[in-house]
């Protein structure tokens, strides 16, 4: 049975179209293969989200679904997930993001000319492990080429007319004929007067001098998904530098670095930490306090715990990117041998030493560290 579409998108049953669209956009950004590195779990959730959006974004399908469920949709001839309404998932993305995903690099095919698209921007942001565990919203402020606020990007002083470019006749392109040893080559280049827009302002905007763009500062809130790895990049389509009038903006890339954490070592979705206990406590058993992402936790160590022993706190690690399940925290036990014994302590230990027999030191105590090393390298 398919999951509940509202649950998949994380919206209420009376969510508005805008809320549904927003929820899907958020999920799509978080789960898209470009971001998750083709993680199968994320891809499955991504498909699920696309299917839910396909149904809930269409008023008629949504009504059918509300009344009769997914069964009702199928008997009505709609096969969710096949992208019938949209043609393909890529079209959904095109309608949402203004560009199909998966082209790689955000290139726009503009044949021979036209106004130039804006350049991409790369920013860096640092996350703590706690933020990796939960995901985080980051507000980033950065300098960027923005659409001129005075002329709204058309390059004309407000209230003055915009005219068709005389040089290119409004086409935005000029044909350039080049003689080569193989004959004449005809190519199209952007018009040098209108820069490809086909239009020239009668009176150029006094703020941007007719370019339609100015330098500004952009503030953007980025959703960094839980489980992100050090060095991964998030892409926000269209949030880069503004393009020339009539052309799309570039993309914004945010590269994530994860700060070192004194408490843990990250191993994929697992967290590794260590506790040090005196040899006597190892013999007697003890309770230790360990740091976890959710604060301190008491962990019991049985009497006779050996050096290198691992205690596992299930689910106390990090989530996989795009997944809900969390890894474990593994606590490695380090045993400290007491030194600088007083005369009295020494006598106590001597008495213990002579009393120890095969029962206390038998093979049930495992291979020891050396044995484990050897096994690891065999
Ligand atoms: Zn302007
Ligand atoms: Zn022109």
Strand coverage percent: 25-35%
Low-confidence stretches: 82-112
Mean pLDDT across the residues is: 83
Number of strands: 15
- Terminus-to-terminus distance: 47 Å
As laid out across the biggest beta sheet, the strand order is 10-11-15-14
Task: Specify the overall morphology.
Answer: elongated
Bound molecules: zinc ion
Q: Count of DSSP helices?
A: 11
Could you state the order of secondary-structure elements as H and E? Answer: HHHHHHEHEEEEEEEEEEHEEEEHHH
Query: Fraction of residues in helices?
Result: 25-40%
Can you lay out the helices and strands and say which pair or pack?
Layout (H helix, E strand, L loop, with lengths): L4 H5 L7 H15 L1 H4 L3 H17 L2 H17 L13 H9 L23 E7 L1 H6 L1 E12 L14 E3 L8 E8 L2 E8 L8 E3 L11 E12 L8 E4 L15 E7 L6 E3 L2 E9 H6 L1 E7 L2 E7 L8 E4 L15 E8 L6 H13 L2 H4 L6 H10 L1
Parallel strand pairs: 1-9, 11-15
Antiparallel strand pairs: 2-7, 3-6, 4-5, 8-9, 10-11, 12-13, 14-15
Helix pairs in contact: 2-4
The protein binds zinc ion (2 copies).
Describe the structure.
The chain has 378 residues and is an alpha+beta fold. It has eleven helices and 15 strands. The strands form six sheets. Strands 10-11-15-14 form a four-stranded mixed sheet. It has a three-stranded mixed sheet with strand order 1-9-8. α2 (17-31) packs antiparallel against α4 (40-56). The radius of gyration is 32 Å and the shape is elongated.
Give a summary of the structure in a few sentences.
The chain is α+β, with helices and mostly antiparallel strands and 378 residues long. Helices cover 28% and strands 27% of the residues. The strands form six sheets. The chain has a four-stranded mixed sheet with strand order 10-11-15-14. It has a three-stranded mixed sheet with strand order 1-9-8.
């Amino acid at each position: 049975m398919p999951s509940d579409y509202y649950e998949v998108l994380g919206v209420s049953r009376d969510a508005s179209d805008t809320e549904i669209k927003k929820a899907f956009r958020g999920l799509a950004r978080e789960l898209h293969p470009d971001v998750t590195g083709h993680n199968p779990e994320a891809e499955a959730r991504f498909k699920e989200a696309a299917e839910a959006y396909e149904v809930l974004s269409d008023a008629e399908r949504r009504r059918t679904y509300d009344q009769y469920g997914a069964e009702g949709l199928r008997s009505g001839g709609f096969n969710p997930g096949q992208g019938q309404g949209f043609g393909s998932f890529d079209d959904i993305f095109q309608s949402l993001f203004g560009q199909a995903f998966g082209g790689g690099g955000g290139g726009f095919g503009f044949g021979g000319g036209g106004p130039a698209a804006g350049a991409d921007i790369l920013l860096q942001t640092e996350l703590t492990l706690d933020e990796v565990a939960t995901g985080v919203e980051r507000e980033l402020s950065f300098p960027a080429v923005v659409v001129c606020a005075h002329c709204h990007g058309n390059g004309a002083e407000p209230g003055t007319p915009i005219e068709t470019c005389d040089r290119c006749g409004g086409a935005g392109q000029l044909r350039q004929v080049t003689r080569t040893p193989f004959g004449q080559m005809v190519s199209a280049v952007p018009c040098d007067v209108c820069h490809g827009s086909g239009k020239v302002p009668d009176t150029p905007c006094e703020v941007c001098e007719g370019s339609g763009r100015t330098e500004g500062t952009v503030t953007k809130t980025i959703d960094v998904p839980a489980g992100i790895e050090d060095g991964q990049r998030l892409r926000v389509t269209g949030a880069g530098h503004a393009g020339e009038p009539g052309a799309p903006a570039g993309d914004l890339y945010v590269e994530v670095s994860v700060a070192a954490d004194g408490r843990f070592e990250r191993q994929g979705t697992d967290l590794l930490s260590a506790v040090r206990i005196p040899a006597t406590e190892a013999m007697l058993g003890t309770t230790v306090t360990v740091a976890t992402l959710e604060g301190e936790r008491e962990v019991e160590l049985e009497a006779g715990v050996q050096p290198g022993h691992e205690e596992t706190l299930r689910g106390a690690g990090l989530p996989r990117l795009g997944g809900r399940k969390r890894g474990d925290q593994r606590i490695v036990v380090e045993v400290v041998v007491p030194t600088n014994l007083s005369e009295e302590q020494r006598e106590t230990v001597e008495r213990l030493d002579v009393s120890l027999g095969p029962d206390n030191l038998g093979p049930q105590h495992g291979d020891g560290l050396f044995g484990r090393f050897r096994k690891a390298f065999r």
